[in-house]
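Chains adopt folds. We examine one example:
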Amino acid sequence: MNQSIALARAGIPVYHAGLIGEEGDFLLDICRQYGVDTSYIKKLPAKGGHAIIQTDKNGQNCIILYGGTNQMQTREYIDEVLGQFEEGDYIVLQNEINLLDYVIEKAYERGMKIVLNPSPFDSKLDACDLTKIDWFILNEIEGGQFTGRTEADEILTCLAERFPKAKFVLTLGENGSVFFDGKQKVCQEIYKVDVVDTTAAGDTFTGFFLASVIAGKSMQDALRLAAKASSIAVSRAGAAPSIPAMEEVKDDTESVAC
């Protein structure tokens, strides 16, 4: 949900799809508050998926997930939603739902641009044909789990060899972020701020980065905008409320050559 909100806050028309539980009306309210279209969200008579987020004194978080309705999608529901979209439309996925392999397959058949954040990283990804992914946006821990490597350059090289048609963005915490497409590499430093809460940092980064890509910006500009937006988010408490609007994000830092 927070990635959808970040995309909307960055000025992109967003439709959020998924299943909420009997207590989930407030999620619809939050999405609508920030400009996310909720037409494809359905409510089930069950407990919704949710997270327990613990934040330490340094603003770092530990998240415990409960799947709930996130694990109750059907093929019929997926077909109904994807039938509303067409070639060239973007679909942003995480590994928090069931039937992820089916979603990827059907989105690929429709010619959609598939963006995957493989979080949480687990064995469900083994069932997915990840050669159909256009963009991987992942952190260094997930990159290490994918490749068995720990250095950013080695992670990106391994990923590019494994998925040669994809593009990659690897986030490195306080060390910034890196774009790699097998040939071009672009690095971006972070904006240094007083960290309050990192809960929405990754989602904010993803939303603003993709908004720039969709708008046709260069990779340098996309990483720069995403870094600024996520720095604003971590300086505030909470998840969705911490995500800045586009007008708050000023592009005043430089990319760093790798």
About this structure: Residues 1-251 form a domain with the UDP-N-acetylmuramoyl-L-alanine:D-glutamate ligase fold (CATH 3.40.1190.20). The two ends are 33 Å apart (CA to CA).
